[in-house]
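Page 47, continued from p. 46.
Same chain as before, 73 aa.
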Amino acid sequence: MTRFLASRWTRAGLALVALGWGPLLLVGLLAELGLWSDPDPNPVGLGLLFYVTFWPAVACLGLGVLQALRRRS
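Result:
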């Protein structure tokens, strides 16, 4: 696991996941648990943030994994 985290691409991908996907997932989780003020939230802004960061995060994580595997061999 540490060899995957050694790659800058992997760290960038994880940062995009945390900053881009985290808020939307947090709102959904809090609403499901009943801790959000609106039981049926419609977080359009957070959904757009997820939309914009999804493919760049997947690409960065994929490049990081490929780079780590390539270093191993």
